Amino acid sequence: EAGVAQSPRYKIIEKRQSVAFWCNPISGHATLYWYQQILGQGPKLLIQFQNNGVVDDSQLPKDRFSAERLKGVDSTLKIQPAKLEDSAVYLCASSFGGPPMAEQYFGPGTRLTVT
Amino acid sequence: RKEVEQDPGPFNVPEGATVAFNCTYSNSASQSFFWYRQDCRKEPKLLMSVYSSGNEDGRFTAQLNRASQYISLLIRDSKLSDSATYLCVVALDQTGANNLFFGTGTRLTVIP
């Protein structure tokens, strides 16, 4: 079974530039999550989609971050403009949708460096 | 106060040793508990769920103490391949969003 796909794997940008990440979840998984993992910390949930609707985006810095999942399958996360503190690994995860909620499957992540 | 607290380690143990990790959570309404494993520069992967009665999977034993809001993971007969970061994960409920909390992880290195 194919896992969660993410691209790009690495990205280096200067502060104030824009960047976009892409995620394709496991086929059939209704729920998709974006996490930010800063070095030395655990993943922090940014946004959760159920099909193409946002379930919760309360931890998403909406002044600069946006995400969409238009057709209920793949998703993009955008940062505009980037700040130094956005340097992190951005992980996408998906789950079938039913409980237990935390049985999520993670993609390999996109490692973002903002200089 | 953090939702989930873990000792970051690192824990350096010899092969064959038994090692235990602990995790505490702050919200007594938490309902689901898990241990994830994360290898260096890799994504987290579910290791095991944690049930109130305690559960075992081979060399791994997970326990939950709701009264003390405490979760543990015991690894027996450590292997070199067990070297990784172990993330404690707590979920407040099984349907809501923004209810999944990861600890900072405990780093384990098994030494030959």
Structure described in brief:
By secondary structure, chain A is mainly beta. In chain A, 0% of the residues lie in helices and 48% in strands.
Low-confidence stretches of chain A: none
- Structural class, from helix and strand content of chain B? mainly beta
Helix content of chain A: under 10%
Biggest interface in this structure?
Answer: A-B, 22 and 26 residues
Calculate Rg of chain A over CA atoms: 13 Å
Number of helices of chain A: 0
Number of strands of chain B: 11
Mean pLDDT of chain B: 91
Largest sheet of chain B: 6 strands, mixed
Structural class of chain A: mainly beta
Tell me what the structure shows.
The complex is a heterodimer of chains A (115) and B (112). Chain A is an all-beta fold and 115 residues long. Chain A has no helices and eleven strands. In chain A, the strands form two sheets. In chain A, strands 2, 4, 5, 6, 9, 10 and 11 form a seven-stranded mixed sheet that branches. A four-stranded antiparallel sheet of chain A has the order 1-3-8-7, with no helix packed on it. In chain A, a hairpin with a 6-residue loop joins strand 7 (65-68) and strand 8. The radius of gyration of chain A is 13 Å and the shape is globular. The mean pLDDT of chain A is 92. Chain B is an all-beta fold and 112 residues long. Chain B is built from no helices and eleven strands. In chain B, the strands form two sheets. In chain B, strands 2, 4, 5, 9, 10 and 11 form a six-stranded mixed sheet that branches. Chain B has a five-stranded antiparallel sheet with strand order 1-3-8-7-6, with no helix packed on it. The radius of gyration of chain B is 14 Å and the shape is globular. Chain A binds chain B through residues 40-45, 48, 55-56, 58-59, 91, 99-104, 106-109, and chain B through 4, 8, 32, 34, 42-46, 49, 87, 89, 91, 93-105.
